[in-house]
Amino acid sequence: MNRPLSGRVAAQAVLLLNAFLVLAPMVIMGLSAFKSTREIFQNPFGLPGVWRWENFARVWVEAKFALYFRNSILVTMASIIIILILGAMAGYALGRFRFGGNDLLYLYFLSGLMLPIRLGIIPLFILMRNLHLLDTLWALILTYAASGLPSAVFILTGFFRTLPSDLDSAARIDGAGEWLIFQRIMVPLVRPALIIVAVYNLIPVWNDFFFPLVFIQTDRLKTLPLGMTTFFGQYSTDWGALFAGLTLAALPVVTLYALLSQQFIRGLTAGAVKG
Amino acid sequence: MICLLVAGFYPAAATGQQPVKLTFWSWRVEDKWAYDKIIQAFQQRNPGIQVEFVPFKATEYNTILSSALTAGKGPDIIHLRAYGGLETFAAPGYIAQLDFDKLPELKTFSRQLLDGARGRKDGKLYGVPFATQSLVIYYNKKIFAQNNLSVPKTWDEFLTVLKTLKDHGVLPLANGGKEGWTLEVMSGVVAPNFYGGTAFYDAVTRGQTSFKDTAYTNALAKMLDLRPYMHPNFMGVDYTTMQQQFINEQAAMFIGGSWEIGFFKAQNKDLDFDIFVAPPSKAGTTPWVSSYNDGNYGVNAKTPYMDAALKFIQFTATREFGQMFTDMLAQLSAVPGVEVRDPILKHVQELSRKATPYIMLVGFRWQAPTGSTLLQSALQGMMAGSKTPEQVGDEVTKGLSAWFEPFQGR
Amino acid sequence: MRTSRRMWLVFFLGPATVVFATFITYPILSALAFSMYAWEGIGRRGFIGLANFARLFATFPYSGLLVNAFWHNVLVFVVTMLIQNVTALGLAVLLARSPWGTRGYRVVFFLPVMLSLVIVGFLWALFLNPIFGLVNKFLTLAHAGALARPWLGDASTALLTLIVVNAWRWLGFPTIVFLAGINAVPEEYVEAARIDGAGEWDVIRRIIFPLLAPAVTIIVLLTFIGSFNWFELPYIMQGVSGAPNRATDVLSLLFYRTAFGEVDTGLQDIGIGSAIAVLMFALLLTVSAVGAVLLRRREVELA
Q1: Is B368 in contact with C265 (CB distance < 8 Å)?
Q2: ipTM reported for the complex, 2 dp
Q3: Which of B180, B365, C17, C136 fits as disulfide partner to B370, beta carbons 3.0 to 4.6 Å?
Q4: Can you give the residue ranges of the ABC transmembrane type-1 domain (chain C) (predicted)?
């Protein structure tokens, strides 16, 4: 396909400009993290005169970033593990067993794809309070797990349905127990689907700000996005530290993305792109 | 089951061995270093009690505290605001009631301050007042000297000072409008001299007049005189940026509260500054100064460590605490008899003899929508030029009429 | 055998159903009921029918705030469609021709989608600081100092600025979705059109756009849902009151403020908060349902 050179140059110019607009703010963020506040004000675009690594050290230790990271990792891992286990179990039952109400239950889970759970935050808040779960990480884990289930059930049921039916019948004839069939035979076969489910939920859970804002008040239980707001309040005049905090907070996700960009692009657009 | 839960909640009480750990929430992010020191002094005297000071961003504090208390959680010791800000939490029973028997030290506190610690409905005490704040104007002495300026005595002189600074290429006022509450503070400085101070306050809180009164709206209009002397982009200037401009000597004046003194000094030791109060229209009249009880230390009614928490707030009512508080933070402690050593703070104390209640905070924060919420948004409109002072007065009156009966039908 | 099969079904389906029913279905259904009760703090009092709605619609300042916030959500949707999604479509068309570096561009464009909106909001709030921020400094350097302004403090630019920041974060998402949609257009169609003498623009307009309809519907739907759930960015950059003077107030902020406490008092009004939630819920559900039907119909037409 040959197109006129001028057209191709113009296209490259547009694409490069957009790439620049995306990257420039992030590069400036990273560079500013090494500057003093004065330097940021006077020389916002240039390289730092001295590379002040101590900005990061200060943020990591004094501003409790280590703690916020730990909480975020705990919450994200726990939520995803629950989503995967419960989602796979439900998807297996819905995809492999025929029973009355199968379709109805499937649709019931799917309804969760449409319902904006944030609007149920008041009853959820009161429910968590009555369960004595407010201001604990469990409030977050259970909320994320429940809101991740519809997509998990949807994706996994579809996958289980595509598996040939003689697989489990053969095992059943051999006398294998249901749990064994599920765990040893079926789950390994849907591993690609499990990865999609994990990626689909990973970033939204890691980045969520709304539920911690409502559920968590104790500083040492804050996840990274909520901890950022405390940090910004306390260091509001120290721009070097602020940029170091932002850079530090962005780093894990950016690194992970650099390693697995295709999986993330596919996983995050999974709901909107078919196939 | 209940036993298990109780045991789970009161581990220290059950064993009686480990020190009791109290959490203490506050909105005073800037004062953390001082509170940490004060707490150390307390802990030395009370080895069995540890206190952790946890500050939140001021604009988010009430919402966070509200969620925590309704959840049956929250800190043991609570930095509470005063007046309506206290009532919100006291009325539903979240705050432990205090009295002179429990805290005899409170008997010596001034009545006006204690009024800011009482529930409106029951008149009971819910906290130990911690500070009086006055709203003033800070000025950079060096910049004033460089431009041969002296402290203005009248409003017109004030405007001349502002103009001279602007003509000399100096930013006269650090103030901004991105955060509505900083504009409310500005109105608290500028307006009382023009609406007639406490006489108007009494009339409006009794419902004899409203904020549509031209005395009030004309007073608000005086704020517009200041607009040309703020940064051209002042509507985007937030509180932190205001502070930074004054601290870094990029602006000559800062209209704000007496709570800034300590922070300004800590941030720039070479900053040579002082305060004056809003000048009246005529020379020779004593200017009104808006002041109020800034807040109180209270105890969570549900704390498992009631005795320890009471011990701590009892400590905050002592002269020793008051002196440390005043010395370190350069704020006027509510404890009577504290010696003010900081010259600027002393100046604040002298100049605010003719005090008038900070109108919305003291008088109109009892229910939603509060006078402050309404005024802050409306002032942003006024300073941006999209609302007249009369519209501001209308909007505030109309909004308050939702719960303040005397305004209904006005 | 039968009972054991049933037991296994309960074992496999039970946990997911319980978690989903407890933490999603129950709260959402309760939210509808809550709006019909009187509230004192978080204590539920008597049934009052539609009184909360009446209060929301008829009393100042709620009535004004509701309408104000609603129109801001509409504006967010419309402007996002115009600037973010149209740009995304353009970029997708360019990328679909597989120019040099396509893989790299895809990765770069999608990168901000990974970032938390809290990071994005704080970052741009620093950049947009009217005095110390680099946006105004850049404009001054570029001899366009006259354009420098208090982007977030000026009521006429604040919301638009937030929308642009939001678009900076999201742009890669619709770009990838559109790109996938274009790449799914069968090559034979395009070739056939070319043989018939269709120009570049004709191919895009006659072949690609109509076949892109499902992708467009999905993006319109997601943009709508996103616009009406907009919370993080205005909260982080402008605070919970929608400063200045409610110029960036949106329904989610209004909802959060009324339900969890106003800034200066911490006063909660669960009745009004629930009523706002119900209205938002009805709106989102209606639009999602209509969107889903449209999507279904288009897919059928294509098949």
Answers
A1: yes
A2: 0.92
A3: B365
A4: 70-291
What is the number of structural domains in chain A? 1
Residue ranges making up the domain that contains C126: 55-302
In order, the DSSP letters of chain C are: -HHHHHHHHHHHHHHHHHHHIIIIIHHHHHHHHHTTEEEETTEEEEE-TTHHHHHHHHSTTHHHHHHHHHHHHHHHHHHIIIIIIHHHHHHHHHHHT--TTHHHHHHHHHHHHHS-HHHHHHHHHHHT-TTT-HHHHHHHHTT-GGG---TTTSTTTHHHHHHHHHHHHHTHHHHHHHHHHHHTS-HHHHHHHHHTT--HHHIIIIIIHHHTHHHHHHHHHHHHHHHHT--HHHHHHHTTTTSSTTTT--HHHHHHHHHH--TTT----HHHHHHHHHHHHHHHHHHHHHHHHHHHHHHHHH-
* Smallest Cα distance from B56 to chain A, Å: 6
Cβ-defined contact of B66 to C260 (cutoff 8 Å):
yes
Q: Give mean pLDDT, residues B291-301.
A: 94
Distance from CA of C155 to the nearest CA of A (A): 24
β-bridge partners, B95: B300
Residue labelled with tokens 């939001």: C166
pLDDT in tens, A206-220: 999 999 999 998 888
Domain count, chain B: 2
Enclosing domain of residue A83: 69-189
State how far residue A64 is from chain B, nearest Cα, in angstroms.
13
Largest CA distance in chain B: 76
Mean pLDDT of C77-94: 95
d(CA C289, CA B176): 46
Residue C189 lies inside a defined structural domain of this protein: yes
Contact residues on chain A for C108, CB-CB shorter than 8 A: 19, 22-23
Q: Which pair of structure tokens corresponds to residue A92?
A: 């297996």
Within a domain: C23: no
Q: B29: domain range? A: 19-132+293-346
The verdict on B262 and B152 lying in the same domain is yes
Residue B13's pLDDT band (boundaries 50, 70, 90)?
Answer: very low
Mean pLDDT, chain B, whole residue set: 91
Residues A194 and A89 sit within 8 Å (Cβ to Cβ):
no
CATH number at residue C286: 1.10.3720.10
A8 and C CB contact within 8 Å: yes
Over the range A73-92, which residues count as b (16 or more CB within 10 Å of their CB) and which as e?
eebbebbbebbbbbbbbbbb
**What CATH number corresponds to the domain at position A83?**
1.10.3720.10
Say if the Cβ atoms of B177 and C153 lie within 8 Å: yes
Owner of token pair 């005169």: A49
C157: contact with A, CB 8 A cutoff = no
**Torsion, CA B287, CA B292, CA B294, CA B298, rounded to 10:** 160
The dihedral through the CA atoms of A263, A265, A271, A273 has a sign that is: negative
Same domain, B188 and B308: no
DSSP-based three-state secondary structure for B1:
coil
Q: How confident is the model at residue A2 (pLDDT cuts 50, 70, 90)?
A: low
SS3 label, residue B179 = coil
| Helix, coil or strand: residue B388 | coil
Position C301 scores a pLDDT of: 60
Contacts of B64 in chain A (CB under 8 A): 217
Strand-strand pairing, B251-257 and B171-173? parallel
B61 to chain C: closest CA residue: C263
Enter the pTM of the model. Answer: 0.90
| The two structure tokens encoding residue A11 | 């296209």
Per DSSP, the three-state class of B55 is: strand
- What three-state secondary structure class fits A267? helix
Average pLDDT score over chain C: 89
A206-226 as b/e: b if 16+ CB within 10 A: bbbbbbbbbbbbebebbbbbb
Distance from CA of A72 to the nearest CA of C (A): 12
